[in-house]
Amino acid sequence: MRPESPRALAVGILLEVERGGRAQLLLDRALDRLPWPERDKAYATHLVYGALRRLRFLDFLLEPHLKRPHRLPPRVRWILRLGAWEWLWGKADHARVSPWVEEAKRVSPRLAGLVNAVLRRLHLREAPECVRLSLPDWLCLAWRDFFGQVAFAQGFNEPAPLFVTAYRPVEGLRPGPIPDSYLWEGGKTDFSALGLQPQNPASLFAAQLLDPAPGEKVLDLCGGAGLKAFYLAAKGAEVVSYDLNPKRQEAGERTARKLGLRVAYRTQDLTEPLSEKAKKVLLDAPCTGTGTFRSHPELRYRLVAEDPRRMAELQLRLLETAARATEEGGMLIYSVCTLTEEEGEGVAQAFLGRHPEFVPEPTACPFPVLRSGLGVYVAPEGGLDGFYYLRLRKVNFKT
Known about the structure:
Layout: H1 6-18, H2 23-33, H3 38-53, H4 55-62, H5 74-89, H6 93-107, H7 112-121, H8 129-132, H9 137-147, E1 162-166, E2 174-175, E3 181-184, E4 196-198, H10 201-208, E5 217-221, H11 227-234, E6 238-243, H12 246-259, E7 263-267, E8 278-284, H13 307-324, E9 326-336, H14 342-354, E10 358-361, E11 369-373, E12 375-378, E13 387-394
Parallel strand pairs: 5-6, 5-8, 6-7, 8-9
Antiparallel strand pairs: 1-3, 1-4, 2-3, 9-13, 10-13, 11-12, 12-13
C-alpha cells in the first residue's frame, strides 16, 4: 500500500478492515513505513477511526441519497462515508467536498459527480438510538435491558486518549485516574526505554486489585504478552504468566527485559489444570471485547448475538482452572474487557453455584460504575475501556 495522501490511505485501510483486517494493526504498519509528518498521520488515523466508530450512523445519513448503495464500488462507498464523517465532524464544504470528489475521480471517474452531489446534500436526520450510537441492535437492546440505558456507549465513539503505566517514577506526565497511570500527550516513542507501557487504566486496575506483597507469588492466567504481569512484577511480586500463545509471550519477554522486570512465562492450554498454586491468582479471560469498541471499533460489526454465551462457556472452564490453582485463603480476580451480562454476572453466578468455597468480596472501584453487586461493571467514560471485575476469596479447602 503506497498511498498518495492521508485520504487515500484511509480508504485503503478501511477496505482492508472490510475484508477482515484489524484497523489498529493495519494503521500501525502503514504509518510506520510512511515518511509523513505527524499531522498527516494523525489525520489518516482520525479518518479511519471516525468512520468506523460512526459507520452505522453514516450509512443512515447517506441512505436517502443513494438508491442502491451496496452496488457501489467499495472504494466509492468508503469515500462517501468518509466525506459524511467529515461533514458530521463539522468540516466546511469547501474544505471537505472537493478533496473527496478528487479522490473519487482517481478511483472511479464516472461516479465523481455522484460523490459531489451526495456530499453537498447531506442533512441531519433523527435516528433511533442504536443507529445513532452505531451499535448492532442485538447488543444495544441487551445493554438497555441489563443496564437500564445505553447512553454510556457514546463514550466508545469519542477519541481515545493514550494512557501509559509507569514502572518507575516519572515527571512531567499528566496523572491518569488511578495511581501509576498517566496520560501520554507526546508522539510515538520507545515507551519501554522510558519505563512506560501503553495500557488502559481499566486494564491496569485488574492487576492492582491483587495488591501483592513484595516476594509474593502471583499467577497471571491468560496473560498474553504480560502487561498486567509487568505491573505486578514492578511491585515486587514473583509472577508466573500463563498463556496459550507463545508468540505473544516471546514479545512480552522482550519487553520485560527492556523494562528490567522479571516475569516467568509458561505456555499452556488453560482449560487443563496447572501444576502449581498461589495465594494470588488473576484470570483476565478472553472475551467478546465489547468494552474495547473505542480502540477496536470494527469489532462491534463482527460480533453476533450468540458470541457472549459461547465465550462464557470458555470463561467458566478457565475459571475452573484458576479456582484449582488458588490456595486456601487466597484471592482470585476474574476480569474481562467486556460489558455483557453473560460474560460478567452470568459467569459469576454459574461459578459460585458450583463453588461454595469461594465468596465474593466487595470491590472499591475508582471508576464510573455502570452496575455493581456481584462484581462491578465499569463505564467507558473519560477514555476508559469497559470492564467487569469480580474479586473472590477461597475461604475453605474443597477437593
